[in-house]
Amino acid sequence: MNPNRVDFLIDLAYGLLLFLAIVLIVTVGTGIGIAFGLGTLVSYIVHVVWKMARFDPDWMTQELTENIEETLTEEVTESVEEQVTAEMTETVGEQVAEEVTESVEEQVTAEMTETVGEQVAEEVSESVEEQVTAEVTENVEKTLKEEIDTLTSQVEDINERIDSEAGDEAGAGATEDEEEQTEGRTQRTTESETDETT
Predict the structure, then answer these.
(1) Nearest-angstrom CA–CA distance, 16 and 33
(2) How many CA atoms lie within 13 Å of 150's alpha carbon, on the beta-carbon side?
(3) What's the chain's Rg over C-alpha atoms?
(4) Is 170 left (phi over 0), alpha (psi -120 to 50) or beta?
């Protein structure tokens, strides 16, 4: 006997039994037909498992191995994709945040230093110029006033001495000449001192 023919005949017999179960459902009753049909299906499944075990004993292990490989491949791929995506998103986000923060800090620091430096330099320069000008002007005015007052009092002292000496020694004409000379000298001295102070 050829094993292929036997398998074909057994499969045909099971097919006829299933057809008989359908006929029983229609003619005798639903309960009896369903019971007969379920019995036939269960016995056919047992027959297929027996046949597979006889002709290909490794079929169950191959099926399980293929199923496990597919499941593991899918799970590993999904897990790796999720992990890589999460890590890349986190890493890229941190790097971008750090670079943007550093760039903004550098730019702001440079601009602020430049701007503040220019403003402070301008304000200090203006303030110093105004204060120095005011103080120098005030000091020069005080010094000139004091020197002029001193010179004026000296001129008056000299004039008094000249008047008193001129009255004693000579007449009124000589006194006037000396006064003019003394005033000329005093004015020249005052002018030279004023020029030196300024």
Answers:
(1) 14
(2) 10
(3) 64
(4) beta
